[in-house]
Design a protein that fits this description.
By secondary structure, the protein is of the alpha+beta class. The protein folds into two domains: 1-155 and 163-324, PAS domain (Beta-Lactamase, 2-Layer Sandwich); 365-506, Reverse transcriptase/Diguanylate cyclase domain (Alpha-Beta Plaits, 2-Layer Sandwich), CATH 3.30.70. The chain has helices at residues 3-80, 92-103, 191-194, 196-199, 274-318, 334-353, 365-373, 392-399, 401-416, 442-457, 482-498, 507-512, and strands spanning 107-114, 119-122, 148-149, 168-175, 181-189, 208-212, 218-220, 244-249, 254-260, 267-273, 382-389, 423-429, 432-438, 470-476, 504-506. The strands form three sheets. It has a five-stranded antiparallel β-sheet with strand order 2-1-5-4-3, with helices on one face. Strands 7-6-10-9-8 form a five-stranded antiparallel β-sheet. It starts with a helix and ends with a helix. Its cofactor is Mg(2+). This is diguanylate cyclase. It holds the Pfam family GGDEF. Residues 380-509 form the GGDEF domain.
Length: 513
């Protein structure tokens, strides 16, 4: 064949194979970019869920416990209708505060201040506050039942043998039955003890979690060298524009996901180094790159073979000879799609687990808040019940945490049987459960709960002497917030506990008394 015909044939074959290769390059490029985008979004979503869950379950639970303490003292002040008498060595207020300090691990000490100017710290030690009203912990808000959480501040004096560079306090004004202020009660929060919960949280991909106050000071941190001492970078605070969100800081090269608790304004942050972020994202894409490279090698080999065969056929045709058959090769990307599906299913599983309690299998607090936010405002027969296991702490101490977990698991499995389109059971935290009733009247609610209570009380345990009961409080939804509804149910639960336990009371019953 003449040289010009060979050159024309080579150019033609090269052009054909390049045109055939362009869609493959475009498809691989699009697939790579889309997979990288989806992987990044799923990674961000999992970190966002982690930050939200820690805020709702860890921080939110601690705040709920602190609110219960203050509500208990306020109710006591309303019932007594007297001065606080904080200079006495005993009395309703003093005895209650001592009991709280001795039975909970939330606080270091307590501060009591009356409108008559009396001031006392429990446990007793030298008072260095010249004017408590000017102290960082003193609440200047005057609304009833509003708790003030201070920023990290210098301690007034050493707490026993503990060395604390700074501390965080919570305080609230107390009112009598006439809505007049009679004093202030405050507590120094044991941030070191509450930070222990962070050590139990296992976050994926080497990410870190901590909580800061509105000044940016670390208040929850597993590293005691940072807690109540160091601050996050100052420019991070300007990026907190939503209740939940994330941003990337090029200075520290960190991806930061955050969730803001409304009161106190504590911000939980989950951070991931950009190097770890890129490693995770590209670890999902490495199989794709490998297959693309293999396909490219096959394509080049196929193109070379085809070119040789086509050139030989054309040459034989030109010389009047028979042509030869060409072989075809193919590649598939099914393994990549399989891997992407596995990753997608994994992230969906993370989403499901974020609204499910792992021990009981019931929905958790986050799911309760989601379901409650979807309730129609014109719903009339909507009730909420709070269930608390009687004497669970002493049972847990006596028989051990394994038995305690078995009890919670049994409550969960028996409560799960109640679930239907009108009744949903949630584990609120610890030994507390919540039941949401839709389109069910009060009598039916009481029947359902009483049947469950009887079933639990008749349960035969491996420990023969173990008897388990629970108490519950029910409140009717009146179109108000979830917190308001739960407060009314919680007051009914408090009355059920106070009047003998193993019973169910509604908020209407407690108001009647």
């Amino acid at each position: 064949m003449p040289d010009y015909k060979k050159n024309t044939l080579n150019r033609l074959l090269n052009t054909v194979f390049i045109i055939m290769f362009i869609p493959f390059i475009l498809a691989c490029t699009w697939f790579y970019l889309e997979s990288k985008k989806r992987t990044s979004e799923e990674l961000h979503n999992s970190l966002r869920i982690a930050a939200s869950n820690i805020t709702n379950q860890t921080i939110g639970r601690n705040i709920h416990d602190i609110e219960q303490v203050f509500n208990r003292i306020q109710l006591l002040a309303l019932r007594k209708q007297t001065d606080l008498h904080i200079k006495d060595n005993s009395g309703p207020i003093i005895d209650t505060v001592n009991e709280i300090l001795n039975t909970t691990d939330l606080f270091l000490n307590a501060m009591l201040y009356t409108n008559t100017g009396k001031f006392r710290i429990i446990p007793e030690h030298d008072i260095t506050d010249e004017a408590p009203q000017n102290a960082p912990w003193f609440p200047h808000n005057t609304r009833e039942r509003e708790i003030f959480f201070s920023l990290a501040h210098e301690p007034r004096s050493p707490h026993g043998k503990k060395e604390i560079p700074k501390q965080v306090s919570a305080a609230m004004h107390l009112f009598d039955i006439n809505k007049s202020r009679i004093g202030v009660v405050g507590f120094d929060i044991d941030m070191a003890n509450l930070s222990l919960a962070l050590k139990k949280i296992k976050l994926p991909y080497g990410s870190q979690v901590f909580t800061v106050d509105r000044s940016g000071t670390y208040i929850f941190h597993e590293n005691p060298g940072k807690r109540l001492i160091d601050k996050i970078p100052e420019h991070w605070m300007s990026n907190l524009r939503e209740v939940e969100g994330f941003f990337y800081d090029p200075v520290t090269q960190k991806h930061v996901h955050y969730s803001v608790n409304p009161n106190p304004e504590w911000i939980t942050m989950v951070t991931l180094d950009h190097a770890d972020f890129s490693r995770v994202v590209h670890s999902f894409l490495n199989p794709l790159l490998l297959i693309v490279f293999i396909c490219f090698i096959y394509y080049v080999g196929f193109a070379i073979i085809c070119k040789l065969y086509v050139a030989n056929v054309i040459m034989k045709i030109n010389y009047g000879l028979d042509g030869a058959d060409l072989k075809e090769y193919s590649n598939d990307l099914s393994s990549i799609f399989s891997k992407i599906k596995i990753r997608t299913d994994k992230f969906k599983d993370v989403e499901i687990r974020s609204i499910t309690d792992p021990l009981t299998g019931l929905y958790n607090r986050r799911k309760l808040e989601e379901d409650f936010s979807k309730l129609p405002q014109n719903s009339k027969d909507t009730y909420l019940a709070i269930i608390d296991l009687d004497n669970f702490k002493s049972i847990n101490d006596k028989y051990g945490h394994v038995t305690g977990d078995e009890i919670l698991s049994y409550i969960g499995s028996s409560g799960y049987l109640l679930n239907n389109e009108k009744v949903t059971v949630y584990r609120f935290g610890g030994e507390e459960f919540v039941v949401l009733f839709l389109d069910v009247n009060s009598a039916e609610c009481m029947d359902i709960l009483n049947n469950w209570r009887i079933l639990v009380s008749q349960k035969q345990w491996r420990e023969k002497e173990l008897k388990l009961t629970f108490s519950a409080g029910i409140a009717h939804w009146q179109g108000d917030s979830l917190n308001a509804l739960m407060n009314r149910a919680d007051q009914a639960l408090y009355e059920a506990k106070k009047t003998g336990k193993n019973k169910i009371l509604s908020s209407i019953d407690t108001h009647a008394h």
